[in-house]
Design goal:
This protein has helices at residues 28-40, 51-61, 77-87, 102-110, 123-136, 173-183, 192-199, 208-222; strands spanning 3-4, 20-24, 44-48, 65-69, 92-97, 115-118, 147-150, 153-156, 161-164, 167-169, 190-191, 230-233, 237-240. By secondary structure, it is α/β, with parallel strands linked by helices. The chain has two domains: 3-136, Response regulator (Rossmann fold), CATH 3.40.50; 147-240, Winged helix-like DNA-binding domain superfamily/Winged helix DNA-binding domain (Arc Repressor Mutant, subunit A), CATH 1.10.10. It has a five-stranded antiparallel β-sheet with strand order 1-7-8-9-10, with helices on one face. A five-stranded parallel β-sheet has the order 3-2-4-5-6, sandwiched between helices. The protein starts with a strand and ends in a 5-residue tail after the last strand.
């Protein structure tokens, strides 16, 4: 069986141009990792470390979506959001916040924030939330559908369903994100560090045993009673290959 691999993301703007995303956060490491992940989706990315710079940049860059830290060094994130909304009526906004108090969430929604991710977060979660926001707003189009196919393993990203050999497989959210990362990189050996960065959080630390644990969970569900597709490359990491490989 052959592997069908989509481009990193066929999502594009209404006019067919790449999606534009502005990342506003004053943590350089987080901004770098997040910008890299977004660029890896084929999107145009700009970043700003404070609200003033971000607002000036937004006027020329005109992003489809903004990833906005709640706490900025100069202007409060909510104030930045209100000003963005005045100038870009349809922009989708994803808040990054270390706060998870109900009052804060209500304040953000009132100001026009679309969704939240609480720190620490996984890059896959941020990407999934952004895709969802942009699709719902009618600002992103995906002509090629949402299926990832590797051998007889099929993932419907939008419906969050996984089928192998025609049988539906129930996965937890983390198992799904781990499998999605493996399926987007078929036959490519992924290190535990790469998997931790992408599926867990940017500051998770070197807890590689968590990766091993979730790989074992996936194997029980994906490979049980079937020809294994998830393989360990000793001293390096893991690789997903179709049966015939």
């Amino acid at each position: 069986m052959h592997t069908h691999r989509r481009p990193p993301s066929p999502l594009h703007g209404p006019d067919g141009s790449p999606l534009r995303v502005l990342v506003i956060d004053d943590e350089p490491d987080l901004t770098e990792v997040l910008s890299g992940a977004l660029a890896g989706e084929g999107w145009e990315v700009r970043s700003a470390a404070d609200g003033t710079t971000a607002l000036a940049l937004a006027r020329t860059f005109r992003p489809h979506a903004v990833v906005l830290d709640w706490m900025l060094p100069d202007i409060d994130g909510l104030q930045v959001l209100r000003q963005l909304r005045q100038e870009l009526k349809t922009v989708c906004v994803l808040f990054l916040t270390a706060r998870d108090a109900v009052e804060d969430r209500i304040a953000g929604i009132t100001a026009g924030g679309d969704d939240y991710v609480t720190k620490p977060f996984s890059l896959e979660e941020v990407l999934a939330r952004l895709r969802g926001l942009l699709r719902r707003a009618g600002m992103a189009h995906e002509p090629d559908g949402d299926q990832l196919v590797v051998g007889d393993l099929v993932m419907d990203e939008e419906a969050r369903e996984v089928v192998r050999g025609g049988a539906l497989i129930e996965l937890s959210r983390t198992e799904f994100e781990l499998l999605r990362f493996l399926m987007r990189n078929p036959r490519r050996v992924l290190s535990k560090a790469q998997i931790l960065d992408r599926v867990w959080s940017y500051d998770f630390g070197g807890r590689s045993h968590v990766v091993e644990l979730y790989i074992s969970y996936l194997r029980k569900k994906i490979d049980a009673g079937r020809t294994p597709m998830i393989h360990t490359v000793r001293g390096v990491g893991y690789v997903l290959k179709p049966e015939s490989s």
